[in-house]
Design goal:
120 residues; TATA-Binding Protein; 5-stranded antiparallel sheet; 46% helix; alpha+beta; elongated; 31% strand
Length: 120
């Protein structure tokens, strides 16, 4: 009987060594863009981008956070002078750093295009 229990314990330890725990760490990327608009203008641009993406989101006083099935993003808007603001974008993805990084580039490009459109 003892031998049988030892065999089960040994087999359990062996399986524990070969099975990895679920360590699903999200892949995170970030980037920033200086804008020639105040914080309210930065937040308005972030709101428009989120509306275009049609995702669930939360609003803070200086940030917007959006949620996808496989990730999330946050846009922070900080004052950078009288008529300027700094948009900082963070994105996470469950599996791919490339998806998070490409999303950041897309968001920064969209913020820049809003910048160019408002100057024309």
């Amino acid at each position: 009987m003892k031998r049988h229990l030892y065999a089960i314990a040994l087999a359990s330890l062996g399986l524990a060594c070969f099975t990895q725990p679920a360590t699903a760490r999200p892949e995170i990327a970030s980037g920033d863009q200086l804008l020639t608009t105040d914080v309210d203008g930065c937040l308005a641009r972030a709101d428009q981008l989120i509306t275009d993406l049609d995702v669930e989101f939360d609003q803070g006083t200086i940030d917007r956070t959006g949620y996808f099935e496989d990730g999330a993003f946050r846009i922070l808007c900080y004052g950078a002078g009288d008529d300027s603001s700094l948009a900082i974008v963070f994105a996470s993805h469950e599996q791919s750093p490339d998806v998070a990084s490409n999303f950041i580039q897309m968001m920064l490009t969209e913020l820049s295009q809003e910048e160019a459109a408002s100057q024309q």
